């Protein structure tokens, strides 16, 4: 559904499956953008086309363009043709089926087009034949790509695409806290397994896909003639040999949005730990109630994977206003209004929000997961991993702690 998807000029392909991954590709591209010259207006000789002004169909506020002072808008993921992409970057959205995620992805795609990038929207999971059509359609582009950027190296889709590409430059951008686990596994030469699944039995599909996963891991290991870069806002303790690590400080987000208007109360950030089977639903609800009561929280920003049933019960029993954001929380918080205090359980946002909100008076506080909240199905590594997420956030960003006691 993207114009000129196979045009010869495109040499960088980025594969994303979530709104946060797409945001982090925009952050990565921003760090590589040539400096403007002359008047400072995009397209004035710097090799970057000026983005076209279009009326937004999604109702999102136009991000502030600090170069010209004007508001700018974008189009839907299935929108009209755009000009050439910056540095030949084509963003390929491997769209999931979840309506909430799809909605956020469409709005992020609008912002990407507004930056001058091309977006190719793939219905990669619509029916049993969809993967074959998607992979077949992308193969010519993969063969030509000089650089591949990916948001989720654990994704089977991405791992399969890695076996096709001949790209000499591979870049991994953040997919949240999973990036920390990916880097550690790559450094130790382990198979790539998401942290909340590690320790469980390997199913038939895992065994069938094992050769593809092993091939992807080898591709993500630097060697002569192939470079691997990790672009991350996460604290990384183990750097694999030969891998370049670059810091994501959310410069694009801070340059385009905010600073936000602050409210007097506190906001609470939701998590999908119940949906992934890590935390018991009743215990989680009790914890949310305690935090809201103690800290005067009035709003609950739902994670895009939280179930409607759980959110309905939470709203009824806690009295919190449940907000389902239409963009990643980093952008929601930056454009405001947002509470002066943001309360969060172990989550990616305890690392990203302090960066996105740098220079504001917002305080981010973290609440650890009590071991008693874990389900019988939780991975043996769950408690240690979650404690590490919040512990490192306190060390790196100086965040305060809150308790449900």
TrEMBL record:
Bias kind Low complexity: ranges:
70-87
Basic and acidic residues: bias regions:
51-68
Instruction: Spell out the residue ranges making up region: Disordered.
Output: 34-87
Specify the superkingdom: Bacteria
Name of the protein described by the UniProt record: Uncharacterized protein
**Species whose genome carries this gene:** Streptomyces yaanensis
Organism placement in taxonomy: Bacteria, Bacillati, Actinomycetota, Actinomycetes, Kitasatosporales
